[in-house]
Amino acid sequence: MNNNLFNIKDNVVVITGGTGVLGRAIAKYLALEGAKVIILGRKEEVGQKIASDISEAGGVCEFMKTDVMNQEVVQQNCDDIMRKYGRIDTLLNAAGGNMPGATIAPDKTFFDLDASQFQTVLNLNLTGTVIPTQVFLRPMVAQGKGSIINFSSMAAFRPMTRVCGYAAAKAGISNFTAYMATECAKKFGEGIRVNAIAPGFFITEQNRALLTNPDGTFTQRGQDVIRQTPFGRMGDPEELCGTIHYLMSEAAKFVTGTVAVVDGGFNAFAM
Q1: What's the Cα-to-Cα distance from 26 to each of 92, 225, 237, rounded to whole Å?
Q2: Is the distance from CB of 152 to CB of 175 less than 8 angstroms?
Q3: For position 219, what pLDDT does the model report?
Q4: What proportion of the chain, given as a percentage, has pLDDT over 90?
Q5: Of 35, 93, 110, 192, which has the most beta carbons under 10 Å away?
Q6: What three-state secondary structure class fits 165?
Q7: Rounded CA separation 249/253 (Å)
Q8: Exposed, middle or buried by CB within 10 Å (0-12, 13-18, 19+), for 76?
């Protein structure tokens, strides 16, 4: 019997989009659990500060600038990580985002959708998951073991108003996760696992203005979220950490192709 099912000490973990509210909380938790964390992101100053804070707290963490939609840049990141650490155990595809033109406000219609911004949102979320997966999967296949965890969303389950492009991209990520789980298991063996996490509603820089007013109270949309969340509150970023820890550890050795929901009951709510 393996008593170290949840041991992730010395695991080399790559987090794309690691400078966001959720990414930084996850990075700190994993580093303090003994993992070696590499944050990839676009905001160099922010990323360096996060890595420095985590290092000062006693964890091993560094930042590398990237562009998840540029395969050459991501490959260089991978080469640098492999040169330093010799392996990659987990990839967290947390990069993503939205744009005003890919959303449809209540006073607008589908005809106001900006097709180019819609495409950009699809690229950032979906292609920005596919490219790092393709790059970082290679060393995992070579070592015969690895865990990939993608970031889906409540919008993948329920096509929410407004977020047209984002919802389509996240639904694609859930589908891609299931596809890759089968693809990897069939062609590279059971050592490679691909899962996703679907966070419920957490206040991030991306949705803060949509869900909260300047004084911190909830907007109408924020109130709608709370009304449909049985726990009656938004999530705390740290509440994603346990599920991610599980999915990347030996405790989830027979788990692949799943989308783990962490949402305070939002997706289970009926009326």
Answers
A1: 10, 23, 8
A2: no
A3: 93
A4: 93
A5: 93
A6: helix
A7: 7
A8: middle
Mean pLDDT in residue range 80-88: 98
Residue 2, pLDDT score: 64
Alpha carbons 141 and 55: distance in angstroms, whole number: 30
Q: How far does CA 213 lie from the centroid of its chain?
A: 26
DSSP E strands: which ranges in 31-96? Answer: 36-41, 60-65, 90-93
CA angle 155, 225, 233 (to 5 degrees): 120
- How many whole angstroms separate alpha carbon 119 and alpha carbon 213? 29
Q: Which residues are the active-site residues?
A: 166
205 class by beta-carbon count within 10 Å (0-12 exposed, 13-18 middle, 19+ buried): exposed
| Neighbour order of strands in the sheet with 146-151 | 60-65, 36-41, 12-16, 90-93, 146-151, 192-199, 259-262
Convert the pLDDT of each residue in 47-69 to its tens digit.
999 999 999 999 999 999 999 99
Which of the 8 DSSP states describes residue 256?
A: -
Query: Do 218 and 207 form a contact (C-beta atoms < 8 A)?
Result: no
Token couple for 92:
């967290």
- Collapsing DSSP to helix, strand or coil, 35 comes out as coil
Average of per-residue pLDDT across 7-18: 97
CA angle at residue 241 from 93 to 99, to 5 degrees?
A: 40
- Read off the pTM: 0.96
223-261: pLDDT as tens digits:
999 999 999 999 999 999 999 999 999 999 999 999 999
CB atoms within 10 A of CB 236: 11
